[in-house]
Amino acid sequence: MAERGEDSTEAEGEHGGGGPLSRGHITQLFAACDLNGSGFIEHEELHAICNELTIDELTDIFDQLDNDRDGKISLEEFADGFMVFRL
Ligand SMILES: [Ca+2]
After folding, report:
1. Cα-to-centroid distance, 33 and ligand 1 (Å)
2. Which of 28, 49, 51, 87 lies at 20 to 30 Å from 58 by C-alpha?
3. Domain 20-85 indexed as CATH 1.20.120.910
């Protein structure tokens, strides 16, 4: 008689809510990607990080992240991108 209805582990892990990554993680990741510490991720920085992607793929991702089209990705845009890509 195997009863597999016990999911006690599901109770934890639901605080903080909102997105697969916490805001703190995204901020850390952003800082790690912001190689020159400008407070924005620029095209070259994305290229340096994702150097296995082609320029086309990179441009595509960059365009999707760069909502206001100012040529750089802010923390806000970066965080929004993570909601979309659900990494
Ligand atoms: Ca931007």
Report:
1. 15
2. 28
3. no
Ligand 1 center to 18 CA (angstroms): 22
Task: Calculate how far, in angstroms, residue 71's C-alpha sits from the geometric centre of ligand 1.
Answer: 6
Phi, psi (5° rounding) for residue 42? -95, 170
Q: Which two tokens stand for residue 7?
A: 């999911």
Return the HEC string of 52-80: CCCHHHHHHHHHHHCCCCCCEECHHHHHH
- DSSP letter at 10? G
User: 17 CA distance to ligand 1 centroid (A)?
Assistant: 26
* SS3 at position 42: strand
Residues in the chain: 87
Identify residue 22 by its one-letter amino acid code.
S
pTM of the model: 0.69
Task: Tell me, in angstroms, the distance from the centre of ligand 1 to residue 13's CA.
Answer: 32
